[in-house]
Amino acid sequence: MPSALPDGEPVPADGALPASALAGAADRPLGFYLHVPYCATRCGYCDFNTYTATELRGTGGVLASRDNYADTLTDEIRLARKVLGDDPREVRTVFVGGGTPTLLAAGDLVRMLQAIRDEFGLAPDAEITTEANPESVDPAYLATLREGGFNRISLGMQSAEQHVLKILDRTHTPGRPEACVAEARAAGFDHVNLDLIYGTPGESDDDWRASLDAALGAGPDHVSAYALIVEEGTQLARRIRRGEVPMTDDDVHADRYLIAEETLSAAGFDWYEVSNWATSDAGRCLHNELYWRGADWWGAGPGAHSHVGGVRWWNVKHPGAYAGALAAGKSPGAGREILTDEDRRVERILLELRLREGVPLSLLRETGLTASRRALSEGLLQEAPYGEGRAVLTLRGRLLADAVVRDLVD
């Protein structure tokens, strides 16, 4: 979750939504994102809304404590119940992210999930995911999560090469993520994801191939592979600016993506979103698909974003301010925006074009349709789906996805 928050209109003290946002809610999927803002150390590339113990010391008091965070988050889940009213929907997905959620006791994560179960109910086939750093879990921890209802885990591997991990300031040792996959499988997790990053300064093509081979050897059914983005204000950005490490260029990123596609495809993985591959439809991350398809989700936690029925809002960033608002019986919302039909049309194109199913051509204006025909002639869109009324990226189109999107949204 990026640390910067947008501007917006004030959120009512009770968090109330306009009636238009709740109209037809029963027909839309509902998910929950639970943000845990704590990390043991700050990775050099990280621009997320996270805090180490040192960064929180003296700024949040007891309200910002990890020890009572599950109780604080439960307060927001109860607020969500009040705001959404008599919404009959069961929750389809829950995703616990951060930060490092597994810095909390496993029982705390289970209690947060139980609060959603108590307030809303969970769909019988609900996808329940937590992120985890490899060094922050062990077999007993994973067993507690599985017994508590978690059925999917996303492990931050990033790389199998020690010198790459060092540049990223990652604290786990090579081999530990792969061991975690085995431990998660033994605990009974249905689905396991490994997160990888390519394009780290100093990484070679062979380093990247070794990371992919190590990830595949561990036996996950889902792999996410993201190009490293160097955000201003991070330690890595400062190191690059000082000339300590080189900046990786876009051509290298493209080459690494092609290596990923070739390697993962050969191992039986299919892409379903530009940066995500799974061995089956069942292995796809349903929670992320809620985001990509503009469904409803409630984001609980400092800085978390939510969307319900065309209303998007975001919470205050700091854990102390977040907990203080809830303790006072108020919404922790910092701002919100009500999306217009045009906003939602553009967002559908931006997000759905990244999916394997693509985006309906009917969403495009005339200039966007002209651009789509040009993209088709340039080999950026697939011919067969285009003839059926959908814009679907080719492999080359995936490499240039941002540029294609810019053209299609007029």
UniProtKB/TrEMBL annotation:
One of its GO terms (molecular function) is coproporphyrinogen oxidase activity. GO terms for biological process: porphyrin-containing compound biosynthetic process. SUPFAM superfamilies: Radical SAM enzymes (SSF102114). One of its GO terms (cellular component) is cytoplasm. Keywords: 4Fe-4S, Chaperone, Cytoplasm, Heme, Iron, Iron-sulfur, Metal-binding, S-adenosyl-L-methionine. InterPro entries: Coproporphyrinogen-III_oxidase (IPR034505), Elp3/MiaA/NifB-like_rSAM (IPR006638), HemW-like (IPR004559), rSAM (IPR007197), rSAM_horseshoe (IPR023404), rSAM_sf (IPR058240). It is found in: Cytoplasm. Signal peptide: none annotated. Residues 24-270 form the Radical SAM core domain. SMART domains: Elp3 (SM00729). PANTHER family: COPROPORPHYRINIGEN III OXIDASE, RADICAL S-ADENOSYL METHIONINE DOMAIN-CONTAINING PROTEIN 1, MITOCHONDRIAL. NCBIfam families: hemN_rel (TIGR00539). Belongs to the anaerobic coproporphyrinogen-III oxidase family. HemW subfamily. Probably acts as a heme chaperone, transferring heme to an unknown acceptor. Binds one molecule of heme per monomer, possibly covalently. Binds 1 [4Fe-4S] cluster. The cluster is coordinated with 3 cysteines and an exchangeable S-adenosyl-L-methionine. This is Heme chaperone HemW. It comes from Streptomyces mutabilis.
